[in-house]
Fold this sequence. Notes:
Layout: H1 3-16, H2 19-22, H3 35-42, H4 45-48, H5 55-59, E1 63-64, H6 67-71, H7 78-82, H8 96-115, H9 125-149, E2 162-165, E3 178-180, H10 181-195, H11 211-225, H12 228-241, E4 266-268, E5 284-285, H13 287-290, H14 299-302, E6 304-306, E7 312-314, E8 329-330, H15 331-344, H16 348-360, H17 376-390, H18 397-404, E9 414-418, E10 421-425, H19 438-444
Antiparallel strand pairs: 1-5, 2-3, 4-8, 6-7, 9-10
Helix pairs in contact: 1-8, 3-8, 3-9, 8-9, 9-10, 10-11, 11-12, 11-15, 12-15, 15-16, 15-17, 16-17
Amino acid sequence: MPKHLLYISVLFVLLGCTKKLDTKPDQSKTVPQTIGDFQALLDNSDIINAFIPAYGEAAADNYYITDARFNALPLNGMRQGYIWGDDIFPVNDFISDWSGNYIRINLCNLVLNGMSEISEGVGSSAYNNLQGSALFVRGMSFYLLSGIFCKPYDSATAVSDLGIPLRLSPDVKKIYQRANLKETYDRVLSDLKDAIPLLPREPLNKLRPSKVSAYALLSRIYLGLGNYADAIKYADSSLAIYNELLDYNTVSDEGNLPFEKFNSDVILYGILSPFALLSMTSSYIDTTLYKQFEENDLRKSLFFRIGLAGQILFKGTYSGDVFVQFGGITVPEVLLTRAECNAREGKISAAMSDLNTLLRKRWKSGTYIDLALGDAQVALKKILDERRKELIFRGLRWFDLRRLNKDARFAKKLTRKINGNVYELLPNSPRYVFPIPEEEIVSSGIQQNVR
């Protein structure tokens, strides 16, 4: 990340995140000294629970925009992002998908480094929770970056494929080159696994990490790696601690925000970076996707509303905010991950059990009939269809497209039609990897992605 962003981010957090820090005299105003001070840094939800990458979701196939909307966008930036073009990131803009995650990583490094220099409460639950939280958030941030700025993981090429700079020090003057992709995922997994014994079973609130969220995130990562046995193992561990589902029969479909911010589905709250292409007022849902929701499926009225001209708009965010989309971790995601992996492993009964458990809470009471599919391939296709419907606008569709493109059965060509022109994104295209912001290339000299 350009150095000035790191300095600004750390100064902002230290000076502004809590009143407690503001009340300290002199130098201690900007230098955390206690477990409470460091915890306050990690409780800054504007950084820790934000900056979930949005560009991937904006490049995916859940929605479309009109010609008029497209023509009103800047020539570079969002307009190019929508058609998978070249000049996606305007020069000198704050690119939150990149810089926001490195702000969070640097904050975690600041906490981890600072904790090694204090003697208060070493080994206490508060100390362990703090250390585990910093490791979790850093590992999560490295992972999120890799899903946008690196190729999808392939064990045959991971040693030669480019990863991301693995910043492990709070020293903003230190330049890190790009690790390879294997090293990147090794660090992601080690940070998350090192965090688990330090974290509480369940969090104090849904803004903080816990064993539940660490297990859930590991399950997601192993799904992407194609390691279905470990994905199941970590899903089991997460669901063994917390498996509560929101019954959609208890939610009113009136209004533009049907869902409460911290509802029972949510394991860890997070939001995507604000992004105009994902607007709930001017981005319209793919009609083919909308038609997949059956009439007794409550998601049809809870997730969507019909505009004045008959357009289908999304309203089903868990963010609690009409301006941003939810990007956290939920129980339904973990259930769907376990269901998919069991189907891939030929364990059809277990796969259907998880899917039926979810869908009973999504359909009108008394209308859902449990599925009893006997063919693993049919079961897998059904689970993937339900995954797309359930997890719409959660920042996961790009992740799914990238991994599913490796399988000819599920590979998909994306198409945009704008101003009479047709734009295509082919499966496994190098344009599934976003360019690194040019300011970063200039300031650090790291290698740019080939598109």
